[in-house]
Amino acid sequence: MTSSIKTAQAMPAADIKIRSAAFEDVPFIVMLDERATGHSKCCYWRELFAHFAQTPGEGRAFLVAEQQGRLVGFIAGEIRAFEFGAERCGWVFALNVDQDIRVNNVGTRLFEALCERFSSAGVEKVRTMVDRDNDLVLAFFRSLGMMTGPLIQLEKELD
């Protein structure tokens, strides 16, 4: 964790503004993710942002939450169609909120903003993948009305 992430103060949800991410936000996104996961993935976040920035408004969104001019969270998602036989739906790829202000509904506001964009594009369903052992994230998404879907992830270790 770097010292440039400052502890956020509990603020009313009205003080949170959601907007599209800008290139200048990527260092914050990297730091917030590293703080949550313990892994620095600078290249990953730069590449994901570049992918989303190439064709904005075409079924993908990378949003950030600001509180009094300071970034406190982000979400990234995209509309995908017919992969694995599934109907066209929105996918949440990443969602992270500064752990010091999680009680202020920032994650909920980010999720709702992304869902509004998906809905405006004619999507009727949203999906994500969650580590089955991450009770906090599972509880969060379930509180938003999400439940187990029809797909099962399979994996195999490669030699």
UniProtKB/TrEMBL annotation:
Pfam families listed in its UniProt record: Acetyltransf_1 (PF00583)
Coiled coil region boundaries: none
Molecular function (Gene Ontology), one example: acyltransferase activity, transferring groups other than amino-acyl groups
SUPFAM superfamilies associated with the record: Acyl-CoA N-acyltransferases (Nat)
Keywords: Transferase
InterPro entries: Acyl_CoA_acyltransferase, GNAT_dom
Top-level taxonomic group: Bacteria
Descriptive protein name: GNAT family N-acetyltransferase
Source organism of this protein record: Rhodoblastus sphagnicola
